[in-house]
Amino acid sequence: MGVVNVTPDSFSDGGLYLGVKQAVAHARRLVEEGADILDIGGESTRPGSAPVALDEERQRVLPVLEALSGCGVPLSVDTRKPEFMLEAIAAGAAMVNDVTALTAPAALEAVAKTPVAVCLMHMQGDPRTMQESPSYQDVVREVRDYLAQRVAAAEQAGIARDRIVVDPGFGFGKTVEHNLELLRSLAEFRSLGVALMAGLSRKAMLGRLTGREPRDRVHASVAAALLAVQNGAQIVRVHDVAATRDALAVWTAVMSNG
Ligand code: HH2
To answer: Whose CA is closest to atom 11 on ligand 1?
Structure first.
């Protein structure tokens, strides 16, 4: 899944693709590089970020979605707002990626009445404050239990299992140690019986481990994506599609003869 941030303030590429033309060109490049899905977002959820008004999100994302419909890959919309989910679906989105796992009032019902796929992600707290003091007794168990509850709630609302993807939410209310523990134990999330996604691309934990700025975290991101796939992720959400594709081509070739 290639990331298309139509935002002025995303942590690694904020402002680079804020115009419709730039965002669409970037998205098309990601498809050429081998992205199977594009995830389009108009609201940064990086630590410390403030929410974006519905109208602003609409103006950023809808023209990009519309321009990309028919681009050859399914489009995902990264949003927490139920009203906007429905507008994005009407504009061609085939997937909703919600960092709040459809916990907003009426979000479950909004998605249930459509045929699209949905990614339910775990976050402790909210973006403004989530990195102040993340705390867990057992991060893997707590994140998995939360996702199991959200899958059950989604099913109860009428969203079939084969439409659901779960994501432990690397960096969303987690220390570097929490993230490493989740990555080590990612395979345990397969027991939830739905597709598994991981988003580690250019994140702060990789900065902590390498001492590099977000745009220079490509190599670390590729390593993290590869480990995530090796540990059971079926979708990796990445900024650097070509590099990730190459690494996965090698991994796939090795594994297919194993
Ligand atoms: N990470 C980000 C945003 N959305 N969605 C899922 N499912 N999983 C993730 O790990 C995830 C996500 C943060 O990355 P990015 O979009 O590049 O940054 P920002 O939130 O600053 O726009």
So the answer is: 199
